[in-house]
Amino acid sequence: MIDVERLRADTPGVEHVNHLNNAGGALMPTPVIETIQQYLDLEISIGAYEAFESKVDAAEAVYGSIAALIGAEPSEIALMDSATRAWDMIVYSLTHKPGDRILTTTTEYGSNWATYLQLADRFGVEIVTVEDAPTGEVDLEALAREIDERATLVTMNHMPTNGGVVNPAADVGAIANAAGVPFLLDACQTVGQLPIDVGAIGCDFLTSTSRKFLRGPRGLGFAYVNATAGELLDPVFVDNHAARVTDKSIEFRSDARKLESWEKNWAMVMGLGVAADYAMKIGVDDIWQRVVALSESTRSGLLEIDGVQVHDRGKVQGAIVTFTVDGRNVIEVKELLHEGGINVSWSTINSAPFDMRMRGIDSLVRASVHAYNSEEEIAAFLDTVRVIAGAPIATA
Ligand SMILES: Cc1ncc(COP(=O)(O)O)c(C=O)c1O
Fold first, then answer.
1. Does position 42 have pLDDT exceeding 80, yes or no?
2. Which of 66, 80, 299, 319 lies 20 to 30 angstroms, CA to CA, from 186?
3. Do both 307 and 213 map to the same domain?
4. Ligand 1 center from residue 250 Cα (angstroms)
5. Per-residue confidence at 394, pLDDT binned at 50, 70, 90?
6. Domain, as residue range, for 296
7. Residues 328, 183: one domain?
8. pLDDT for position 1
9. Is the Cβ atom of 270 under 6 angstroms away from ligand 1?
10. Whether 165 contacts 107, CB under 8 Å
């Protein structure tokens, strides 16, 4: 059983806000905050390079912590500025030629979608959007039908930016592996929210961020590059950390760090490592159980309010709860919740262009729970939505 009181005591932000924007950026726990502050203090007092030299082992351990969280090896982890940059570094570093088919899913994230449009333009690559099952996750039979000898990549998010559906990553991995097609999993919304084992999923590549369910600082993402699949990548950028450079040649590193650049915000990187350790200490299985329970009660509470529509799909659903209020635009709803001390965010066509167009939805309010949220916070959120929707407040 997860100790919610302990989680809340570790999270100073809960004293100030009812934070239901964990899919945007979660509240950091004290061990992460203190690690960042202590590292910055060290840089301030002894110098930036000198601080790093005194913490080389801790810096190296960050790779080990992220790897342990997702069942990888430290050499298979590369640190980036964001999940998008991690994803881009993989996709742009693969070889593309006219007629290649990249298979993706309907809920692809907007930035990734932009990359597809550019690849289609530059290389004549065909982007194939595999249809969903009626329940909302990717249709595995449709995927198996679409994978042919021209397929060069399967990409999919584990959970989209604009809904709580959990896509069946291991089933997709099995289909991609059987066809010998590399599989890139965008786990931006799931690392730290639910258990992830890259071996069991069978992905060649995985990308994610620090700031969302992992509860690390902003400005960081990471890539997992399977030791064998790394050979497929010819890095689109290079520097003298990713490769050994002479006046006549460059020789790339053999591990995932061939995708990295040298300069890093080490205070934040240290915080990310501690965030991964913290998630493992709490137990990601327990985090997931609580997230499922809280998101289910949030969805069912919203469904009972007249004038509120819930938009999530999926056989398995997690932290992201999306809804609209009849007669109110999403910015208004977000602002009214904010006035009540409640943080949520919203998604537009820019967030998941194919899916939003397909479902005929312009924008959605997104409330996203984490294990540290309390039942009282969910109740306060539902009461405020009732007021916004003009519905009577429930009495206990
Ligand atoms: C599913 C998904 N993929 C990728 C991203 C991009 O993450 P970042 O903003 O760190 O680049 C997001 C961000 O919301 C996302 O929800």
1. yes
2. 299
3. no
4. 32
5. low
6. 4-25+284-389
7. no
8. 83
9. no
10. yes
Neighbours of 179 (CB within 10 A): 17
105 lines ligand 1 (CB under 6 A): no
From ligand 1's centre to the CA of 381, what distance in Å? Answer: 25
Give residue-wise pLDDT tens across range 361-383.
999 999 999 999 999 999 999 99
Q: Take residue 314 and report the two structure tokens written for it.
A: 């999926």
| Residue 392 predicted with pLDDT over 60 | yes
301 lines ligand 1 (CB under 6 A): no
If one counts the domains in the chain, the total is 2
Residues 161-177 have a mean pLDDT of: 98
Radius of gyration over every alpha carbon of the chain, rounded to an integer in angstroms: 21
- What is the best residue among 157, 188, 194, 207 to mutate for testing ligand 1's pocket, by most ligand atoms within 8 Å of CB? 188
- Please write the tens of the pLDDT for every residue from 25-39: 999 999 999 999 999
Mean pLDDT of 239-261: 97
Question: Are 301 and 361 contained in the same domain?
Answer: yes
Q: Are residues 150 and 56 in the same domain?
A: yes
> Phi then psi for 256, rounded to 5 degrees?
-60, -20
**Close Cβ partners of 80 (under 8 Å, ≥ 6 residues apart):** 86, 89, 220, 221, 222, 223, 259, 260
Instruction: Tell me the residue ranges of DSSP E strands in 144-194.
Output: 151-157, 183-186
229 with 89, same domain: the answer is yes
The per-residue pLDDT for 117 is 96
* Domain limit, last residue, from 281, 300, 326: 281
Are residues 55 and 160 both part of a single domain? yes
